[in-house]
Write a structure and sequence with these properties.
The protein is of the alpha+beta class. The protein has one domain: Porin, CATH 2.40.160.20. The chain has three helices and nine strands. It has an eight-stranded antiparallel beta barrel with strand order 2-3-4-5-6-7-8-9. A hairpin with a 4-residue loop joins strand 2 (about 95-105) and strand 3 (about 110-120).
């Protein structure tokens, strides 16, 4: 979970870890291995998108040959042609289920399962509603704090669920050759709003009984992703969604700040 500035009690974990023995150090090492692999996964996804964009740029340069330039047939740009769109989605609903990793608090492993329902108003614009729920567990970084013997706890905010609506814009429809097979896909961008439900851990000591303050936060959602058309009805989706919300900085005080969480998901969709 990223935010604009650090809260006053966020320095506590660093103090606790510095005094840890070999067991906490090993636990922190496991955490960093997890962070590295997560980072690698995100870079692979972004690298794939960048590679696709680069291939489009190369094809666009190759198509600049004046021998194949027929723009003089339509100088006023009154004719719009959608070339080779094999799979259409306009005026069709689609049901999807996505799942993957969530990047929010550094003290929890968090995963999300998210059903979505979409209706395409045209080939370019789609409205999509979603409801996602999180599965959380204590990670090795949190365990290292406990093993260090410190009773002080950092501010921990768990993601519980989210729901809302997105307006999706698909400016690019393309096809690529993957292992000598033509794969058609849309590249989309989304913006929307909804609710982001979280729980703020109110404990100031590890020895205290679990106490949580449930929060319901207004949130702004932004996303980008690919939708691969396997056939007329089956789709594979790759999605990156960020959620920005305003919430209390710590368990004490009224100070609030803006936070941004993100999810990286893969799923299947069925177009009806």
């Amino acid at each position: 979970m990223a935010r604009a500035k650090d809260g006053p009690d966020m320095k506590t974990p660093q103090t606790a870890v510095d005094g840890a023995g070999s067991a906490p150090v090993a636990s922190v090492s496991k955490t960093w291995h997890s962070v590295v692999w997560t980072t690698v996964g995100v870079l692979v996804v972004l690298g794939w998108m960048a590679l696709v964009a680069l291939s489009w740029m190369q094809e666009a340069k190759a198509s600049d040959d004046p021998e194949y330039d027929f723009s003089w047939l339509d100088p006023d740009k009154k004719v719009q042609v959608l070339q080779n769109r094999r799979y259409r989605k306009a005026l069709h609903p689609m049901i999807s289920v996505l799942g993957g990793a969530a990047a929010n608090t550094p003290y929890r492993n968090s995963y999300i399962v998210e059903p979505r329902v979409a209706f395409s108003l045209s080939e370019s614009f789609t409205f999509e509603g979603f409801y996602g729920f999180h599965l959380n567990s204590e990670n090795s970084f949190y365990e290292s704090l406990v093993n260090a013997g410190s009773n002080a706890l950092p501010t921990i905010r768990e993601s519980n669920s989210r729901y809302g609506g997105l307006l999706q814009w698909s400016p690019w429809y393309a096809k690529i050759n993957v292992f000598n097979a033509i794969l058609y896909f849309d590249w989309y961008f989304s913006i929307g709003a909804g609710v982001y439900n979280t729980t703020l851990d109110l404990r100031d000591s590890n020895a205290s009984a679990a106490i949580g303050d449930e929060e319901s936060n207004f949130a702004i959602y932004a996303a980008t992703g690919h939708q691969y058309h396997i056939n007329e009805w089956l789709k594979v989706r790759l999605d990156i969604t960020s959620v920005t919300f305003n919430a209390p900085v710590s368990r004490t005080g009224d100070e609030k700040d803006w936070f941004t969480d993100a999810t990286f998901t893969l799923g299947l969709g069925v177009q009806l």
